[in-house]
Design goal:
This protein is α+β, with helices and mostly antiparallel strands. It is built from 8 helices and 6 strands, in the order αααββαααβαβαββ. The chain has helices spanning 6-16, 21-24, 27-39, 63-88, 93-99, 102-106, 129-143, 159-167, and strands spanning 43-49, 52-60, 112-120, 148-154, 171-177, 183-190. The longest helix has 26 residues, at 63-88. It is globular, with a radius of gyration of 16 Å.
């Protein structure tokens, strides 16, 4: 992903995840997030279909470090980007505040990369783009020294995504229940020969 791809990546993210928390925070917030991922040299890849951006994958081989850098570099910008949405829904303020704890929660042992975002345009789903993006992420994570990839996704009402990750060799390592009551599967994939 290049800086020129960020606005289209945000559109794809919003189309793929209209009811998710990061989407609720708005396009300015997402543009900052993906833009900083590029600026910090994280794994950020896109898939093209017929000459247009069809999907994206983003993650980090050092997620704790990535989130600390985000806060250090752009805390005020993220707060300003989220403020209009939080003002419209004050109950979301606690969830945003908890997100600031992400660096300590995101820290992983050396050798574990975290896939943070995978989005494919709704009209491009089923084209193989998502699979290609995850495999490209896996390969890039391995190239950067990872021995394992992890990710989380909703367990309930998300059978297609769960089947997708299992088809790629991911296994459920644990189940997480968020403070909001969402039940998540945390998946892991060992990278052979690493």
């Amino acid at each position: 992903m290049a800086s020129a791809d960020v606005s289209r990546a945000v559109e794809v993210h919003l189309a793929a995840f209209p009811d998710f928390f990061l989407s609720f925070l708005g396009p300015r917030f997402l543009a900052l997030f993906y833009g900083e991922a590029i600026a910090l040299g994280e794994i950020a890849l896109v898939a093209d279909l017929d000459g247009s951006l069809a999907g994206l994958v983003m993650g980090s081989v050092q997620p704790g470090r990535f989130f600390k850098a985000l806060l250090r570099r752009r805390l005020v910008a993220f707060a300003l980007a989220a403020a209009p949405r939080v003002l419209r829904r004050p109950s979301s303020a606690l969830r945003v505040a908890r997100a600031l704890l992400k660096p300590s929660q995101a820290a992983r042992g050396d050798g574990t990369a975290t896939l943070m975002s995978l989005a494919v345009r709704p009209d491009a789903q089923g084209s193989g783009g998502g699979r290609a993006l995850v495999l490209a992420f896996r390969d890039e994570a391995a190239r950067r020294g990872a021995r394992k990839v992890d990710l989380t996704t909703d367990k309930v009402g998300n059978a297609r995504a769960n089947a997708f990750y299992r088809s790629l060799g991911f296994v459920v390592a644990r189940e997480i229940v968020t403070r909001e009551g969402r039940v998540l599967n945390e998946y892991e994939l060992d990278l052979p020969g690493r």
